[in-house]
Design a protein that fits this description.
This is Putative short chain dehydrogenase. By secondary structure, the chain is α/β, with parallel strands linked by helices. The chain has 5 helices and 5 strands.
């Protein structure tokens, strides 16, 4: 009897920087991955060619989050982990309402992970003694002036 295929790891924001590096790390370990991306970068084509499932997602609205969750639910019976990495950073500019800046960042950094955790809960439970992991992190590139 063959070894069972491991459950995929879901990485939000996997098209660039640390999310992309993690996707490649897991692919090189023969670990299936599902990657969300907002903007199609050439790196996405490389991930797809290597076997990753890449799903375009718009996390700026709750409807976009739930549409992504529906795609994940259709594609797998379980998840090994969710790595919440999707991010958006808006510069604070004179005249830009700070409440709008904060609302945008909260949608991506707080609402999206919370909604995905609940929408995908059944994929995270019931996989033996080792529970699935939920990890939330982000990276930020500081631009020199």
């Amino acid at each position: 009897m063959g070894k069972a295929q491991p459950l995929p790891i879901l990485i939000t924001g996997g098209g660039r920087r640390i999310g992309l590096a993690l996707a490649w790390h897991f692919i090189n370990q023969k670990q299936p991955v599902i990657v969300s991306y907002r903007t199609h970068y050439p790196a996405i084509d490389g991930l797809i060619k290597a076997g990753a499932q890449c799903i375009q997602a718009d996390f700026s609205t709750n409807d976009g989050v739930m549409a992504f969750a529906d795609e994940v639910l259709k594609s797998t019976h379980g998840l090994r982990a969710i790595l919440h990495n999707a991010s958006v950073w808006m510069a604070e500019k004179p005249g830009a309402p700070l409440a709008d800046v904060l609302a945008c960042m909260m949608q991506i950094h707080v609402n999206t992970p919370y909604l995905l955790n609940h929408a995908l809960e059944r994929l995270l439970r019931g996989h033996g003694h080792a529970a699935s992991d939920i990890i939330h992190f982000t990276d930020y590139v500081v631009e020199a002036r």
